[in-house]
């Protein structure tokens, strides 16, 4: 028995009638499905199938419906594993616009972004929330891809974003995140070398679970996926 653990994009719901049809009839594509709100804050769709081939592409088709407009839609993860071997995961990210939701696809499909992207693991130190523009004080914990702000590891930088995007960002003090941005979004605060980062429509933000959280069912898929992306970028850089 193979498990498909499908994280749902914020603001979207699955069409359960489609899934019910897939569990019945002569061509029974899936064994059963269930919605699990405990696996993540966005909720997860769990699909049980007999097997998934590692050589032949398989496709399960069902509809999802957008019920809420989200200013900055973040990718979601899809995990595949055997029922009796949950520790051996294959994880991919997906998105409605960014093809496959994966970092190497982001770079190859949007070369301008790849060529000038900063990719950091940051820790939120302070939130300054305002009616129009929010300011975030963050410590750069890891530099996965350096851009126009050199030697920034372990330094504190200011990030700013529109207040309407606050919920989509989901920042919390003391927590860490993966942030991918563009050099064009880094105006200078003054004549010194300090830069201010703007969180815009081409910024990709993902919560980075702690190692301890990565051992739990809630964050296991995300931790494996984001750690793999970070390691690939560190080892090989952007693939074009």
From TrEMBL:
Name assigned to this protein: NTR domain-containing protein
Keywords: Disulfide bond, Secreted
SMART domains noted in UniProt: A2M_recep, C345C
Signal peptide: none
Pfam families cross-referenced by the UniProt entry: A2M_recep, NTR
Primary localisation category: secreted
PROSITE patterns per the UniProt record, alphabetical: NTR (PS50189)
């Amino acid at each position: 028995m193979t498990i498909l653990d499908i994280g749902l994009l914020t603001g979207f719901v699955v069409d359960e009638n489609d899934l019910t049809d897939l569990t019945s009839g002569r061509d029974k594509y899936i064994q059963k499905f269930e919605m699990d709100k405990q696996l993540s804050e966005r909720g997860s769709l769990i699909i049980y199938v007999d097997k998934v081939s590692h050589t032949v592409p398989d496709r399960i088709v069902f509809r999802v419906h957008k019920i809420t407009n989200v200013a900055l839609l973040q990718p979601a993860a899809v995990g595949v594993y055997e029922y009796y071997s949950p520790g051996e995961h294959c994880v991919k990210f997906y998105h409605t616009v960014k093809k496959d939701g994966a970092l190497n696809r982001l770079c190859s499909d949007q070369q301008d972004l790849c060529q000038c992207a900063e990719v950091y693991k940051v820790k939120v130190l302070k939130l300054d929330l305002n009616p129009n523009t929010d300011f975030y004080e963050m410590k750069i914990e890891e530099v996965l891809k350096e851009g126009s702000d050199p030697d920034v590891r372990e330094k504190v930088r200011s990030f700013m974003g529109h207040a309407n995007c606050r919920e989509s960002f989901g920042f919390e003090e003391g927590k860490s995140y993966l942030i991918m941005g563009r050099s064009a979004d880094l105006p200078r605060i003054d004549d010194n070398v300090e830069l201010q980062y703007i969180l815009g429509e081409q910024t990709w933000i993902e919560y980075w679970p702690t190692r301890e959280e990565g051992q739990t069912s809630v964050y296991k898929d995300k931790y494996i996926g984001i750690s793999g992306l970070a390691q690939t970028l560190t080892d090989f850089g952007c693939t074009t």
